[in-house]
Specification:
The protein has 87 residues and is mainly α. It contains three helices and no strands. It has one domain (2-83). The chain has helices at 2-30, 36-56, 61-83. Helix 1 (2-30) runs antiparallel to helix 2 (36-56), helix 1 (2-30) crosses helix 3 (61-83) and helix 2 runs antiparallel to helix 3.
Length: 87
């Protein structure tokens, strides 16, 4: 059960971080001025998620980290293929 809980929490945190990272990079490349909040949020999100797991459900900490990393990597690969490669 530790594996499932950790992977779900990690996958949710990793997916949210990927969305915030995409928002941050879009705002920076377009020159919009409101990019600091998105950048700060995507940077602090994994710390908050993993700290919460460590405090409340320590046995799932390893799996939460694995889930977050897997969600970031797989999500980025999926978004790249969905866009049709580099552009």
């Amino acid at each position: 059960m530790d594996i499932v809980i950790g992977l779900l929490i990690g996958a949710a945190a990793g997916t949210a971080q990927l969305v915030l990272l995409a928002l941050f990079t879009k705002r920076v490349t377009r020159g919009e001025g409101r990019f600091i909040a998105a950048g700060l949020a995507q940077w602090l999100l994994p710390f908050a998620a993993l700290t919460a797991v460590a405090v409340f459900y320590r046995a799932a900490l390893l799996y939460a980290g694995i889930g977050a990393a897997a969600a970031l990597i797989l999500g980025a690969v999926f978004k790249t293929f969905l866009k049709g490669g580099r552009s």
